[in-house]
Structure formats: structure tokens, C-alpha cells
């Protein structure tokens, strides 16, 4: 078990692309970097880098990555080694390093699907076709669409300062249909109201 949660030295987006484009799995950049790939430039500093994988492919990813990397499960505030062949039915976050006490270099976020639909775990009635949850840069790097990334940010148990800043930065850049989808999704998750609804 490791406890050094702030020991991060994230690799770059091109380095993530080099690693994951060689794997037989579907993947997308997520988090703040996904928003910046949509913007086309870096808008702020990023403490880490996130990669989305589908849960149905996570054992394939483990097999492909474990030769070069050490993978840890993040569960209930604790980091424990992800063992070979261990199916992660409930774990959503994987932290990756080179081994030992070396810094964390990227995080994997597992998401659920059903048939051809992505499922938003915090409100499982919110779904979208898998083919419609990502975009691709001119270099061919896939990333989560901004309205979905903002839903993850706004739908968390507490909106962090950087999430609020990202919302204010990227809201004016969203297409009308993306704003409508984000508003409808937040309303479904928070029928009693959400701080972002007035702006949306």
C-alpha cells in the first residue's frame, strides 16, 4: 500500500498517446487536459493526467501495461496494488507508476458501458452513445467531449475551485447542443437545483 498521493510527475499528452495508441483498447484523455485539447492550448497548470478506459477492457489494458508499469487501485482513499487477473467490478480509479516509490505518472479512470452506450455512474439514467462521447485532435489524440467532462466536474460531491474556473472558462466555448445536454444532465442528477444552472 502507498500513501504518497501528492507524489506526481505526470507525463505529457503526446507520451500518453504513444503508450495507449499501441494498446488493443479504446481510450480517451479526460480531466482538465481533455478540456485543453478541445481549446487547442493549455489554459492552466495540471497536477496529473487522466485516461478513460472502458471497464470491459480493463483486464486487456492491465496485461498490456503491466510489463512496463505498476498499477495501483484507488479505493476509499487507499492505494493498493492491482494484482494480475483481478477483475475490478467497483473500482473506478487506477494510479500508475514505474514501480517502487517512483512518482505517479498517469491515472486511469474506468467507466461503464451497456451495449453501445456510456453510462454516467453518478446517475445511471444519463447515457450516451459511445461513439458520441469523444472528439479527436488533428494529431489523432482522442479526448472526452467538454460537456461530458464538465458534467463529471459539476456532478462531484463538492465543486473544487479549479472545476468552477474550468466551467466559467469553457461554458462560452460550448456548442448550443452541448450546453443543452449539460444543463439537462445536471438537472437530472440534481433535480433540486445546481449552482451552474443559472449560467447554463
Report on this structure.
This protein has 200 residues and is α+β, with helices and mostly antiparallel strands. The chain has a domain at 13-144: Beta Polymerase, domain 2 (2-Layer Sandwich), CATH 3.30.460.40. It contains 6 helices and 10 strands; from the N terminus they run αβαβαββββββββααα. The strands form 2 sheets. Strands 1, 2, 3, 4, 5, 6, 7 and 8 form an 8-stranded mixed sheet that branches. The protein has a two-stranded antiparallel ribbon with strand order 9-10. β7 and β8 form a beta hairpin. The radius of gyration is 17 Å and the shape is globular. The model has no long low-confidence stretch (mean pLDDT 96).
The outline comes out as globular
- Helix share bin: 25-40%
Strand content: 15-25%
CATH topology call of the domain at 13-144 = Beta Polymerase, domain 2
Give the CATH class of the domain at 13-144.
Alpha Beta
How many E-type strands?
A: 10
Number of helices: 6
**Terminal-residue CA separation:** 42 Å
**Major sheet:** 8 strands, mixed
Query: Judging by the overall fold, what is the CATH architecture of the domain at 13-144?
Result: 2-Layer Sandwich
Gyration radius, in Å:
17 Å
Structural category is alpha+beta
Taken in chain order, the helices and strands follow as HEHEHEEEEEEEEHHH
Amino acid at each position: 500500500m502507498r500513501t504518497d498521493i501528492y507524489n506526481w510527475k505526470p507525463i505529457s499528452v503526446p507520451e500518453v498517446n504513444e503508450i495507449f495508441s499501441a494498446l488493443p483498447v479504446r481510450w480517451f484523455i479526460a480531466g482538465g487536459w481533455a478540456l485543453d485539447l478541445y481549446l487547442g492550448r493549455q489554459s492552466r497548470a495540471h497536477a496529473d493526467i487522466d485516461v478513460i478506459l472502458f471497464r470491459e477492457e480493463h483486464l486487456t489494458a492491465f496485461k498490456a501495461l503491466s510489463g512496463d508499469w505498476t498499477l495501483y487501485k484507488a479505493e476509499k482513499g487507499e492505494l493498493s496494488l492491482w494484482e494480475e487477473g483481478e477483475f475490478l467490478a467497483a473500482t473506478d480509479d487506477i494510479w500508475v507508476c514505474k514501480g517502487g516509490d517512483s512518482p505517479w505518472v498517469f491515472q486511469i479512470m474506468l467507466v461503464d458501458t451497456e451495449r453501445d452506450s456510456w453510462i454516467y455512474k453518478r446517475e445511471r439514467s444519463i447515457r450516451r452513445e459511445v461513439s458520441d462521447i469523444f472528439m479527436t485532435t488533428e494529431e489523432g489524440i482522442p479526448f472526452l467531449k467538454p460537456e461530458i467532462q464538465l458534467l463529471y466536474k459539476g456532478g462531484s460531491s463538492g465543486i473544487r475551485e479549479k472545476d468552477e474556473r474550468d466551467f466559467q472558462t469553457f461554458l462560452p466555448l460550448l456548442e448550443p447542443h452541448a450546453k443543452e445536454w449539460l444543463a439537462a444532465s445536471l438537472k437530472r442528477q440534481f433535480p433540486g437545483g445546481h449552482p451552474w444552472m443559472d449560467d447554463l
